[in-house]
Structures are given as C-alpha cells and as structure tokens.
Amino acid sequence: MIPDETQEAALIDAVRAAARREILPRFRNLEAGAISSKSAVDDLVTVADRASEAAISAAVAQILPGAAIVGEEAVAADATILDRIAASETTVIIDPIDGTWNYAMGLSTFGVLLAVTDRGETVFGLLYDPVVDDWVMTRRGGGTWYCTSGGQRRQLRVADAGAETSFPGFSSPWLLPPAKRERFQLELLPFGRVADLRCACHAYRQMAFGHGRFSTDFKLMPWDHAAGVLACQEAGCAVGLLDGRDYAPTIHEGYLITARDAATLAELRAQFAWLLD
Q1: For residue 160, what pLDDT is reported?
Q2: Domain coordinates of the chain in residue numbers?
Q3: Residue 200 contacts residue 228 (beta carbons within 8 Å)
Q4: Biggest CA-to-CA distance, the chain
Q5: How many whole angstroms separate alpha carbon 265 and alpha carbon 214?
C-alpha cells in the first residue's frame, strides 16, 4: 500500500502530536532515571523515546491498518521485528527521537523520522523538527518539500542552492572500526569543516536543502536512513553504498554516501574504497 495524501497528512499530524505531548514537555526536563543505555554507554534511550514511539505506533495502526510497524525501540527489545520490512507489503519505520544523545544532553538538534515502505522500497518519508515545528516530506516520484506549521510549502532542489554556501560535509567517524578511524579522519581534513551532528534527521535535511557537499554513514539502521535517503534523492542528490550498491531499507550493513551530485559520489567512492578492504 502506498499512502494517499490524506493518509500522509494524518501521519504528519500523528508525529506532530507525539512531539507536543511526549517529547517537548520532557526536553531539558528529564527526571532522574529517565535516561538509560542500550548497546553502548552513549547509545541512549529516554522515557520520551518510548512514549513517542508508542503514540506514533498507535496512530499508524489507525491510519494504515494492516501495515507492519518497525520502531527503533521495539527492535531494541526484539531484533526479529526488523525482518518485517522485507516480509511485509507495507511497513512504517519509526525513529521516535533521532538524536537521542543530543536530546538527553539538552541540545536542540534532534528530530523524528518516519518512512513508509512498499515491498521494501521507501515511498514516503518525513523528517520532522519538533523544536521549530517544521518538516521535510518526500514521496517517491513526487519531490521533496519543506513545510511549516504556518502553511509555507516549497519544493527542495539541491541544484537551486548555491554550491559556494554549502557545508563541506557531515560524518560520524567514531562509528568506524578503530583500525580504520584514524586514516578516515585524516583524509577528511582536506575537505574542511566536516561536522558530526549526531542526528541523521538534521544531516539529511541539510543535504536536501543543498547545504552540504556530502554525508557519510557507517551504521545502516533503517529508521535513520529510509526517509532521509528518499528525501535527498528526490531533491536531486546522488546516494549509494560505498561498494556500488543502491541503498534499500532492507540493507543493514555497509557504508553509505549521500552526495550533492553523481560526480561527488563517484569521487568519494574512489577515495574511500580502501574502507572495504
């Protein structure tokens, strides 16, 4: 099932409602014991993550009955839930708070990501900023759009943004194996100021706005990338895995590159091919 415009609007409303009720009231107001770790000390989860995912999941069940739901926190409790993306006709993938570390530390660079897949292919994506209450939405073949609560709506095209104002790039080298991390960081130096936002939602938004030359990702959890990859592709970016494959939400291992254009993607694939050794 591919959601129609009414269902897309309902999904957006559900995410906004969850942010108002579950995320923003707890921002910079988390009680003692409200933050815990998952796979690592800095892999955080908060009560707001779980409450947001529960609220969005409940709404999705009403908006798209019969769709499988894959939420980051549900997968943390049961890894087999991840298999639903490949096994189901329609799947809704939810990152209830993307950038949880930032959120827990009181930094406002966090968001909510939601993607709808049809037979494993992303067909709709939402990248929502709860603090500003604006969002980037995208649909396959329908472009990428910046929308505000005040009713502003404009299509995003990377080619419309001046390359001279773009940020060099976004990357999280700390996700690489230690043996490869130092060389990778050294090879980033000539690019200039490459940032680690610790938030895929905002890195993808910046790329879709045309404010970055490239972004690299080394952990391919679908809730981090399904919506953002489609948004960037529909805005005119070139996206692919370092090994030459196209990205899909069913791929959970590999190195992902989002580039301003095809020439930059080819350049980065050549430069960082050694990561595959």
Answers
A1: 85
A2: 5-155, 159-276
A3: yes
A4: 50
A5: 8
Distance CA 277, CA 268 (A): 16
Angle between helices 222-235 and 200-208 in degrees, nearest 10: 10
Given a cut of 90, whether residue 42 has pLDDT beyond it is: no
Whole-prediction pTM value? 0.96
DSSP conformation letters of 251-269: --SS-EEEESSHHHHHHHH
Mean pLDDT of 52-74: 98
Q: Could you tell me how far CA 46 lies from the centroid of its own chain?
A: 18
CATH class given for the domain over 5-155: alpha beta
Strand segments (E) across the chain: 35-37, 44-46, 68-71, 90-98, 111-118, 121-129, 134-139, 143-148, 153-155, 167-170, 194-195, 212-217, 238-241, 256-259
Q: Which residues of 108-120 are buried (b: 16+ CB within 10 A; e: fewer)?
A: bbbbbbbbbbbeb
- The lowest-confidence range among 155-164, 186-195, 259-268 is 155-164
Query: What percentage of residues in the chain have a pLDDT greater than 70?
Result: 99
The two domains 5-155 and 159-276 share their CATH topology (first three levels equal): no
pLDDT 10s digits, 202-218 = 999 999 999 999 999 99
3.40.630.30, 3.40.190.80, 3.30.450.40, 3.40.50.720: CATH of 159-276 = 3.40.190.80
| 64 to 4, 92, 96, 222: CA distances (angstroms) | 10, 9, 18, 19
Tens-place pLDDT, residues 110-122: 999 999 999 999 9
Length of the chain: 277
What tens digit of pLDDT does each residue of 220-243 get? Answer: 999 999 999 999 999 999 999 999
User: In sequence order, which ranges of 64-147 are alpha helices (DSSP H)?
Assistant: 72-77, 84-87, 100-104
